[in-house]
Amino acid sequence: MTDSASPADGDLVRSPAKVEVPEHVEQAIRTLIRWAGDDPSREGLLDTPKRVARAWREYCQGYGEDPSLHLSRTFEEVGGYDEVVLLKDIPFQSHCEHHMAPIIGTASIAYLPRDRVVGISKLARVLHGFARRLQVQERLTAEVADCIWENLQPHGVAVVIEATHACMTARGVRTPGVGMTTSRMMGVFRDDERSRKEVLSLMGY
Ligand SMILES: Nc1nc2c(ncn2[C@@H]2O[C@H](COP(=O)(O)OP(=O)(O)OP(=O)(O)O)[C@@H](O)[C@H]2O)c(=O)[nH]1
Ligand SMILES: [Zn+2]
């Protein structure tokens, strides 16, 4: 990446709040404030471009990580456990790539292990790694499922995401209370109806 506004390695180990903000990024946010109808030089807005820039680096921290790395450490000694592992209702936040508006929701992630399991927090880390980018919910769902499928090579993966999109509630069609549900079933959860029903029932569907 050559753009000076792009993530640099050094920034990722520092708190996003400490990231230096280039002048042209601040300038762009001042332009947006003016476009929104306010005066970026009034006192209350003077530091806003810096804050907004840093907030966006934080919202989009996922661009600086490879979520598959979270799945590189696995455990084989699980006492012969060979049933579904499910992490249910994990809260997450993302931003839609069309309006850069918040997507707020929960994800349930399940897999049927083959020989090895992963630390359970890592499933949430994979989710956040993909969510902290500009997304559409369908791609987020697919990326999380594919990442687990490719890296753990389990018998099955099931991901169900429910979210509300601020671009639908706060603007545009302005329809609050509407949730979007997406799912991706792989392996036995796709091919075997009994397994799919079992995992959906464990998820509460
Ligand atoms: N499929 C899908 N659509 C999304 C997602 N997030 C936002 N959208 C939709 O993306 C669409 C963009 O439509 P456009 O017609 O290009 O943009 P727009 O004129 O701002 O549309 P409105 O939101 O209807 O005002 C809208 O219908 C949004 O509701 C998502 O995660 N998945
Ligand atoms: Zn949107």
From TrEMBL:
In its UniProt record, a GO molecular function of this protein is: GTP binding
Q: Which Pfam families match?
A: GTP_cyclohydroI
Q: Does the keyword Isomerase apply?
A: no
Could you tell me the EC number(s) of this protein?
Answer: 3.5.4.16
What does the record give as the reaction this protein catalyses? Answer: GTP + H2O = 7,8-dihydroneopterin 3'-triphosphate + formate + H(+)
Report domain GTP cyclohydrolase I positions: 26-203
Listed GO biological process terms: one-carbon metabolic process; tetrahydrobiopterin biosynthetic process; tetrahydrofolate biosynthetic process
Identify the domain of life.
Bacteria
Spell out the PROSITE patterns in the cross-references. GTP_CYCLOHYDROL_1_1, GTP_CYCLOHYDROL_1_2
Which pathway is recorded for this entry? Cofactor biosynthesis; 7,8-dihydroneopterin triphosphate biosynthesis; 7,8-dihydroneopterin triphosphate from GTP: step 1/1
> What quaternary arrangement does the UniProt entry report?
Homopolymer.
**Family statement drawn from the similarity comment of this UniProt entry:** Belongs to the GTP cyclohydrolase I family.
Under the heading HAMAP family, the entry gives: FolE
Its protein name is GTP cyclohydrolase 1
* Record organism: Sphingomonas cavernae
